[in-house]
Automatic annotation (TrEMBL):
Protein name as annotated: Autoinducer-2 (AI-2) aldolase
SMART domains, sorted: DeoC
Keywords per UniProt: Lyase
Pfam families: DeoC
Entry EC number(s): 4.1.2.-
Gene Ontology molecular function terms on file: lyase activity
NCBIfam families: PRK08227.1
InterPro entries on file: Aldolase_TIM (IPR013785), DeoC/FbaB/LacD_aldolase (IPR002915), DeoC/FbaB_aldolase (IPR050456), FbaB-like (IPR041720)
């Protein structure tokens, strides 16, 4: 193992140079996979734009019914049409999402903690790959706690998921966890996103940070950016815009959509940024137009 003391810090990310090994496939780093893996990735990442709007509503797996997600059966059908991919637990999806929607699924496959605990960093893969296959999942999502107490076990579980996913051509989405005490620096996200990619995941879900373009350039698979805590719609659209400009292949947004007073309008505005090149300002105007709310409201 390389001694970490005296290690030369990475600095030349050549952010302006596009990823060099994509062949003619639209998903970063996936050119060498087989048909099944590419088919599933194409259900998540729109082949026309190479990007995705994932709707995250997996919060209940450790938080119970949080604001906006009290009634999955009412909310999710309203929003599903505007998303490329639904990220949820098998319980939420089986019970509340009609299979006739035919949407791609990023199946939350790890758990182990609840908000009743101080330390949420101990998770394992709890969903059998057979069940992910039965649900026709387009990806399995595993949370990984780099730099936290549960690092070793969550890395092992992530690698288990990658092994099983490779066997059946189901992409694994590695989810970079950020705990209360965990730093959210560029250095942290460079480390965590790259580690997950090197473990073999096909997608990394992460958070936006300063110098995000360096993080995206150094990660050989697509990054999708989480929304985080609810902020003003204008700011959430700026987050989406900055992420896409910085090299993200999409967003995996939850609270900033379902906790908006106008979730249907908000997800459509996010999609304009992700797929249609709208700026955050244009997308916010579009949002106001849909809601007929004036900016002062
Ligand atoms: C947490 C998750 C959540 O799905 C994620 O945080 C996305 O939701 P939000 O946009 O509300 O942050 O993966 O592990």
């Amino acid at each position: 193992m390389v001694d970490k003391i005296g290690n030369k810090a990475a600095k030349d990310f050549s952010e302006e140079i596009v990823f060099a090994n994509n062949g003619n496939f639209h998903v970063k780093g996936a050119a060498n996979y087989d048909w099944g893996m590419k088919d599933r990735l194409s259900r998540i990442f729109n082949p026309k734009t190479g990007k995705t709007v994932m709707l995250a509503f997996d919060h209940g797996y450790f938080m119970g019914p949080t604001s906006g997600l009290e009634r999955l059966d009412i909310l999710i059908p309203k929003l599903a049409n505007y998303a490329d991919c639904l990220m949820g637990t098998r319980g939420a999806i089986r019970s509340s999402v009609p299979p006739s929607f035919n949407k791609s699924i990023a199946l939350r496959a790890s758990s182990g903690s609840s908000i009743l605990q101080e330390d949420l960093s101990h998770e394992s893969m709890v969903v059998d790959i057979d069940d992910a296959i039965k649900m026709n999942a387009s990806a399995i999502a595993i949370q990984t706690f780099i730099g936290a107490d549960g690092q070793k076990e969550t890395i092992e579980e992530l690698n288990k998921a990658v092994n099983l996913g490779s066997k059946y051509s189901i992409p694994t989405m590695g989810v970079v966890a950020v705990g209360k005490e965990m730093e959210r620096t560029t250095q942290f996200f460079l480390l965590a996103t790259r580690m997950l990619a090197e473990f073999g995941v096909q997608i990394v879900k992460t958070y936006y940070c300063d110098d995000f373009e360096k993080v995206a350039a150094a990660c050989p698979v697509p990054l999708v950016v989480a929304g985080g805590k609810k902020i003003h719609e204008k700011d959430a659209l700026a987050l989406a815009y900055n992420s896409i400009q910085g090299g993200a292949a999409g967003v995996d947004m939850g609270r900033n959509i379902f906790q908006s007073a106008y979730p249907e309008e908000m997800i459509q505005a996010v999609a304009k940024v992700v797929h249609e090149g709208y700026s955050d300002v244009e997308a916010y105007e579009f949002f106001l137009h849909l809601t007929k709310v004036s900016e002062e409201d």
